Amino acid sequence: MNDMGKLPTAARRDGRAGFDDASIATKAKAARARRRSAIIAWQVAIAILIVAAMYALNATQGNLTMPRPDAVLRQLVTMIGDGTIPKALGQSLTVLVAGFALSALTGIVGGVILGGFPFVGRVMDPFVNAINATPNAAFIPLVIVWFGLYTEAKIVVVWNAAFFPILINTAAGIANANKDLTEMAQAFGAKRRDLFLSVMVPDALPSILTGLRIGVAVSTVGTVIAELTMAQSGLGGLLTAAGNRFQMDRYFAVVIILMILGTLITSGLRQIERRFGRWRIAQAEGR
């Protein structure tokens, strides 16, 4: 009888626990929604302030210092409509994608080697740091001598800009891979290749993705620098032409395209990084 009398109480407790869990989840969801709304509101407010500041500068300093935002927008629409920006964007993306892909491949492979073989990493560390600390612009004359002024040289400049962030982050992620998992795999007789591919690289994915995100942002800058300093083409060429003619509305229209391009690429990689972050949490919880 006593056991039978306790059943409803236990059921009520379970029901309350379930209700509390649901209530907490609902409150957390609402808090996230409020935080997201607040972030969007602040972003809109900052954008409005920037536009207002542009109008104020235009009114006080003139078009040469700051064009009107509506003039920039009209110029942007015109350049898209007549094919100027699509053509330049295609040229820039060719250099950007090729340079970044090459830097991602070589940077990840090099980082795996440096992080996975401590002796090699220590030998190469001063050389990697020395070259990484050298401004990329210092290599441009050498790149021009070796590769010329055209697409191949621009790809090398982009590769040089993005290679080291990817290399260093990958090496750090591999070197700091979970020691328990590594030792367990070794105890079960895992080969060196399996240890890299099945344990160390998956554990280092967040670090690798961070390096890729930094690398792609630097690649965008490197693409513009290459197009400014070598045979002028792409978005960098449009910037140079507009700047030389003091066409500031045209200049800012190209800048807006560069900002949108960089934001889209970085946001895409950040979403991939978050997805892998959730995968790591699920893995840690044994799901």
Automatic annotation (TrEMBL):
GO cellular component labels: plasma membrane
Membrane topology, from the record: Multi-pass membrane protein
Keywords linked to the UniProt accession: Cell membrane, Membrane, Transmembrane, Transmembrane helix, Transport
GO biological process: transmembrane transport
Keyword Oxidoreductase: no
Cross-referenced PANTHER family: ABC TRANSPORTER PERMEASE PROTEIN MJ0413-RELATED, ALKANE SULFONATE ABC TRANSPORTER-RELATED, MEMBRANE SUBUNIT
Family the entry assigns: Belongs to the binding-protein-dependent transport system permease family.
Protein name: ABC transporter inner membrane protein
Species: Ketogulonicigenium robustum
Source organism phylogeny: Bacteria, Pseudomonadati, Pseudomonadota, Alphaproteobacteria, Rhodobacterales
Gene: ssuC
